[in-house]
Design goal:
The protein is an alpha+beta fold and 487 residues long. It has 16 helices and 16 strands. Strand 6 and strand 7 (112-124) form a beta hairpin.
């Protein structure tokens, strides 16, 4: 099973070959021009940003780059294609022979998988068609051709996937670096990662040759993709088992979410039907070593590499997945905050606990983003260090945290101002324990009669006397001795 994913670039300011902008949801037919409509006498001009994004994506997917590639015309008639052809790349795509590594969910067997990438190529988009549920008619969406000419990057995978789950996980994994590198927002509901078209074929056990493939379209979520593919597999397997494999013909089918099944859209064209030839109005795309090196050096650490690095820090897997994915602007900023906290020497596990725990709760309750809080990454690292070295207790640390989050300031100044330095002197803590035991003779008698859970009560009273400053380890050690009546 192979997957073809087309990414709409939402971060290029204009279309692929003209100066028209594209903004999702624009009023129909307000962002089109003679160039993207292919009117006579017009010439396309390549948007250089598309090339930059294509190179970045190729590098992120471990592809080899074609230092010289070209554009071709792909001919087909469709109501949403005003020119009657699509400018694409055919025999010399900009990137080839890559791969992505994937960790499948434990609940589905887990395990590490590597899926091959056949190619990444640049092309332009057509308009959007609406299809009836019966497949009896199609129409241009409100005659809105704004989408014509929008830059696309098509990623074709090798037939390495064996289930709907694997394809859905693969598509989600593709989405991460795409968003992270700013190539596209990847929002399927906006069509930014909508064409995850899948070619499905089955083969009897022991047969090496793949059977006739069928393409599935109209899958607009990862979960729908999972269901559509598993349905297609079971349908083909059933036809084989019933001796009707001749009914499996090369065609394009649409997934109908309501009916939870596919139906025929059109018979699939072959390469010869598209009458490919080199685009005469565009020159070759020539990459220089300096251009590629500059982009390569500017690539940030990608989510998968960050994931592996965070795993080695002994972080909880939930924290690793959240902090490493950078799937959303808010998450990316939290991940950056975590990174800056570690730069200041904070313990990774403790930093993650604070950020994913109390700080996230504060953000949620006050409806704030991580950039709106007063606590800086440096001061969070100072707070963690102050607790770790015994200057303050964890309880006092929480009190300081919430003041720093809302009001700002420094950890050191708050410790000095409020006299919060932890009491670690055994003699001082022993005196406090003696005072609490003397003030609670009834509870002491109950403890020594077997009600040992009262130790928590005594510890709480001592902490109250010390205004939360008694070192818990020293306190519990002394308290344990005193409660047993030992000197």
């Amino acid at each position: 099973m192979s997957d073809t994913s087309e990414l709409w670039s939402r971060t290029t300011l204009t279309k692929a070959f003209c100066s028209c902008p594209y903004v999702y949801g624009s009023r129909p037919n307000t962002t089109i021009c003679p160039v993207c409509m292919g009117h006579p006498g017009t010439l396309p001009v390549l948007n250089s940003k598309v090339v930059e994004f294509a190179v970045k994506l190729g590098l992120a997917l471990n592809c080899g780059l074609s230092m010289t590639s070209k554009f071709d015309r792909k001919h087909y008639f469709y109501p949403d294609l005003p020119k009657g052809y699509q400018i694409s790349q055919f025999d010399i795509p900009i990137a080839t022979k890559g791969f992505i590594d994937l960790d499948l969910p434990i609940e589905f067997g887990g395990g590490h998988r590597r899926f091959g990438i056949t190619r990444v190529h640049m092309e332009e988009d057509a308009g959007k068609l609406l299809h009836s549920e019966t497949g009896s008619y199609s129409q241009v969406d409100f005659f809105d051709l704004n989408r014509v000419g929008v830059p696309l990057l098509e990623i074709a995978s090798k037939p390495d996937m064996r289930s709907g789950l694997e394809v859905a996980e693969y598509a989600a994994e593709i989405q991460r670096p795409v968003r992270y590198l700013g190539i596209s927002n990847g929002n399927m509901q906006e069509g930014s990662l909508i064409r995850c078209d899948v070619n499905v074929s089955v083969r009897p056990i022991g047969q090496s040759k793949f059977g006739t493939k069928k393409e599935i379209k109209n899958m607009n979520s990862f979960s729908a993709m999972n269901r559509a593919i598993d349905y297609a597999i079971s349908r083909q397997v059933l036809l084989h088992s019933q001796g009707q494999s001749d009914q499996i013909v090369q065609e394009t089918r649409l997934w109908e979410e309501g009916a939870q099944k596919t139906f025929t859209m059109r018979k699939k064209q072959g390469l010869a039907d598209y009458r490919y030839f080199s685009e005469p109005d565009l020159p070759e795309v020539v990459l220089t070593k300096e251009f590629v090196d500059k982009l390569c050096q500017g690539l940030p650490e990608l989510p998968k590499a960050k994931h592996r690095r965070y795993e080695k820090m002994s972080l909880a897997m939930q924290d690793v997945l959240f902090l490493a994915n950078d799937n959303h602007v808010k998450i990316a900023k939290i991940s950056g905050y975590f990174r800056d906290t570690l730069k200041n020497g904070a313990d990774p596990k403790l930093a993650a606990n604070w950020i994913m725990g109390d700080i996230s709760t504060f953000l949620k309750n006050d409806r704030l983003s991580i950039t709106e809080i007063k606590l800086t990454p440096f001061e969070l690292s100072e707070l963690i260090a102050s607790i770790k070295n015994g200057t303050i207790s964890g309880k006092i640390g929480k009190e300081i945290l919430f003041e720093l989050l809302s009001k700002g300031g420094t950890v050191q100044s708050l410790i000095e101002e409020k006299d919060l330095v932890q009491i670690v002197d055994p003699a001082t803590i022993e005196a406090l324990v003696d005072k609490v035991l003397a003030a609670n003779p009834k509870q002491l008698e109950q403890y020594r009669a077997g009600k040992t859970r009262l130790q928590g009560f005594f510890a709480g009273q001592v902490m109250k006397e010390s205004k939360g400053k008694a070192n818990p380890l020293v306190l519990n050690k002394i308290l344990g001795v005193k409660l047993k009546g030992e000197s």
